[in-house]
Amino acid sequence: MLTIDLFGRPPRGVTADLIRKLAAATFKQAGGFGNVHVSFSIVDDQIMKGLNLRHRGVKKTTDVLSFTYGTGEDNWPETDNDTSRRLLGEIVISGPQVSRQAKEIGRTIADEFLIMVVHGVLHLMDYDHVMKRQEDEMFSLQHKILMSQRIIFHP
């Protein structure tokens, strides 16, 4: 089971329950198992720009950043002291950047936001898109997940 914390306000039409269900589906389809917890934060461009500079050395905003929590000896995230859930990580999404991208691409803001949810969870599951082979694998799985959840997706 996957649980979430949600900080900030998602776009119209996106609920915490929808985010949790999509994150859980992504986690499962990416090979995850067990009880895990993910925090989602929706921020403005200023905060995202600061995080992007601090953690990636890039002086501009971005759409989504994922931060994996520390792992234990078994290479799985540490267990929360209060529960048996594993703390998978935090996903930070820039609301303004997602809105701009949605307009630019011709998607709804809700669909673009949900794509960022899937993308962020995949990063927490060690998927990346630095090299072409990794990109192909990650975006293929992302597309499969979005289609399985009936989220409109046009690359």
TrEMBL record:
Positions binding Zn(2+) in this chain are H119, H123, H129
Q: Which UniProt keywords apply?
A: Cytoplasm, Endonuclease, Hydrolase, Metal-binding, Nuclease, Ribosome biogenesis, rRNA processing, Zinc
Free-text cofactor note? Binds 1 zinc ion.
Give cofactor(s), names only.
Zn(2+)
GO MF entry, a single one? RNA endonuclease activity
Primary location recorded for the protein, binned into one broad class: cytoplasm
Report any one BP term from Gene Ontology.
Answer: rRNA processing
Q: Name one Pfam family in it.
A: YbeY
Q: What are the annotated GO cellular component locations?
A: cytoplasm
Q: What Gene3D superfamilies does its record include?
A: Metalloproteases ('zincins'), catalytic domain
Q: What is its EC number?
A: 3.1.-.-
List the subcellular locations: Cytoplasm
Task: Family membership, please give it.
Answer: Belongs to the endoribonuclease YbeY family.
Q: What does this protein do?
A: Single strand-specific metallo-endoribonuclease involved in late-stage 70S ribosome quality control and in maturation of the 3' terminus of the 16S rRNA.
HAMAP family with a match to the protein in the record: Endoribonucl_YbeY
Q: What is this protein called?
A: Endoribonuclease YbeY
Tell me what organism the protein belongs to: Candidatus Uhrbacteria bacterium RIFOXYC2_FULL_47_19
Q: Which gene encodes it?
A: ybeY
